[in-house]
Write a structure and sequence with these properties.
Elements (H helix, E strand, L loop, with lengths): L6 E2 L2 E9 L3 E8 L5 E7 L7 H15 L1
Length: 65
């Protein structure tokens, strides 16, 4: 829950939803539009691995499509 109230890419993290083995998930609200999204933040320990970062990015692209 360390990221609450932070702003990431125009989204303010407003609520902690949960966490898994790779990441934490927050509810985010777009600062200007007010739209809500889920924001997934990769565990910092895992972000050192290029392979894991690529997998994380691929998952995000798949979910956005």
């Amino acid at each position: 829950m360390e990221h609450l109230n932070q702003i990431i890419a125009k989204y303010k993290l407003t609520r902690f939803i949960g966490e898994g083995g790779m990441a934490s998930v927050y509810e985010g609200t777009h600062e200007k539009l007010g739209t809500k999204v889920a924001v997934k933040i990769l565990n910092p320990v895992l972000s050192a691995s290029k392979q894991i970062r690529q997998r994380f990015e691929n998952e995000a692209k798949f979910m956005a499509s």
